[in-house]
């Protein structure tokens, strides 16, 4: 079975070029494309690819927040960040949000494919074009992200995490209910439990508390 991929990239030319490269590889299969972070979140929830190639800078919802939301709902999902920057603190933030590595957009195509395959196999592989000190910081961030995930949202159920992620993505109660095929009252009940567990008084505080945990 080929490795299934979702490309989340707002620049159409780069996205199409990347898809052409990947579609030529027999062990890789692009099953979806997203042009912004919110669409990436929706596509990830619907398609559940093996690996997401996520641009750091995107409209509506950036790659950092999209990664955090996806990883909250799908903890096993692998997200590989794409960036044009070699010293971007947003990459570190994305790795802390759950991304398993990153690739510079000017990486050699052979190296690009190698990192994708290694990431799928569970190896932490970083772009060789990154400065050593930055690479070390990213590895440390991965370790930190794992500890944060263990210590922070552990009190919430998987469904509560999913609902909170949808709320953080700007979804209303009815929209969340439709997405999850449950009633609006069920969503409200889950939100009430979330507020209690996070010791907050309402939706805005819950979302803020959730976002600050990254």
Report on this structure.
With 214 residues, the protein is an alpha/beta fold. The chain has helices spanning 12-23, 37-47, 63-73, 89-96, 109-120, 132-151, 158-168, 173-180, 184-198, 203-212, and strands at 3-8, 28-34, 51-55, 78-83, 101-104. The protein folds into 2 domains: 3-151, Rossmann fold (3-Layer(aba) Sandwich); 155-212, Orthogonal Bundle (Arc Repressor Mutant, subunit A), CATH 1.10.10.10. It contains 10 helices and 5 strands; from the N terminus they run E-H-E-H-E-H-E-H-E-H-H-H-H-H-H. It has a 5-stranded parallel beta sheet, with helices on both faces. Helix 2 runs parallel beside helix 3 (63-73) and helix 7 (158-168) packs across helix 10. The longest helix has 20 residues, at 132-151. The chain is elongated, with a radius of gyration of 17 Å. The model is unreliable at 128-136 (pLDDT under 50).
Structural topology:
Blueprint: E1 3-8, H1 12-23, E2 28-34, H2 37-47, E3 51-55, H3 63-73, E4 78-83, H4 89-96, E5 101-104, H5 109-120, H6 132-151, H7 158-168, H8 173-180, H9 184-198, H10 203-212
Parallel strand pairs: 1-2, 1-3, 3-4, 4-5
Helix pairs in contact: 2-3, 3-4, 3-7, 4-6, 7-9, 7-10, 8-9, 9-10
Short description:
The protein is an alpha/beta fold.
Mean pLDDT: 81
The CATH architecture of the largest domain is 3-Layer(aba) Sandwich
Strand content bin = 5-15%
What's the CATH first level of the largest domain? Alpha Beta
Which superfamily, in CATH terms, is the homologous superfamily of the largest domain?
Answer: Response regulator
* SSE series: EHEHEHEHEHHHHHH
User: Can you list the strand order of the major beta sheet?
Assistant: 2-1-3-4-5
Based on secondary structure, the structural category is: alpha/beta
Total beta strand runs: 5
- Radius of gyration computed on alpha carbons: 17 Å
CATH topology of the largest domain, anyone?
A: Rossmann fold
CA-CA gap between termini: 34 Å
Number of domains: 2
User: Tally the helices: what do you get?
Assistant: 10
Low-confidence stretches: 128-136
Overall geometric form? elongated
Give the fraction of residues assigned to helices: 55-70%
The biggest sheet, with number of strands, parallel, antiparallel or mixed sense and barrel status, is:
5 strands, parallel
């Amino acid at each position: 079975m080929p490795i299934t991929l979702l490309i989340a990239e707002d620049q159409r030319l780069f996205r199409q070029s990347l898809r052409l490269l990947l579609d030529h590889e027999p062990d890789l299969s692009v099953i979806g494309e997203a042009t912004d972070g919110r669409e990436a979140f929706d596509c990830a929830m619907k398609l559940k690819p093996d690996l997401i190639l996520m641009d750091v800078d995107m409209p509506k919802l950036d790659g950092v927040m999209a990664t955090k939301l996806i990883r909250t709902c799908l903890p096993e999902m692998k997200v590989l960040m794409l960036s044009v920057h070699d010293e971007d603190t947003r990459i570190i933030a994305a790795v802390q949000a759950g991304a398993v590595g990153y690739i510079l957009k000017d990486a050699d195509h052979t190296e690009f494919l190698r990192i994708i395959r290694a990431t799928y196999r569970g190896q932490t592989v970083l772009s060789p074009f990154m400065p050593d000190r930055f690479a070390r910081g990213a590895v440390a961030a991965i370790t930190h992200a794992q500890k944060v995930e263990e210590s922070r949202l552990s009190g919430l159920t998987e469904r509560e995490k999913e609902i909170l992620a949808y709320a953080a993505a700007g979804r209303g109660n009815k929209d969340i209910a439709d997405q999850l095929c449950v009633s609006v009252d069920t969503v409200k009940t889950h939100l009430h439990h979330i507020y209690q567990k996070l010791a907050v008084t309402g939706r805005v505080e819950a979302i803020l508390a959730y976002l600050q945990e990254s």
